[in-house]
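Following up on my earlier thread - several people asked me to post the actual chain instead of describing it. Fair enough. Here it is, all 82 residues.
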Amino acid sequence: MTIKKPLAIKQPEVGQIIHDLRLLTGLTQEQFAATLGVTYTTINRWENGRSKPSPLAMEKIEGMLEKMGDEGRDLLTKYLPN
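Reply from S.P.:
Thanks for posting it. Predicted structure:
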């Protein structure tokens, strides 16, 4: 069994990738929050760089990106060009 390391995205990139992911999925901050099991305020803070997601939230975000296929990979490449 391989343990997957969560994405290591720095601020402000984490806020921007969350914003872009939310827009790509067509979700409002409230809808995106419900998808991740957090509050609207939490999403707003992430997007504005006032806080960053927990490791569990990052796993869920990474899962969403993976499910998006090419769009998700393009978004990751934009913010994690390594």
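The longest helix spans residues 13-25. That should answer part of your original question.
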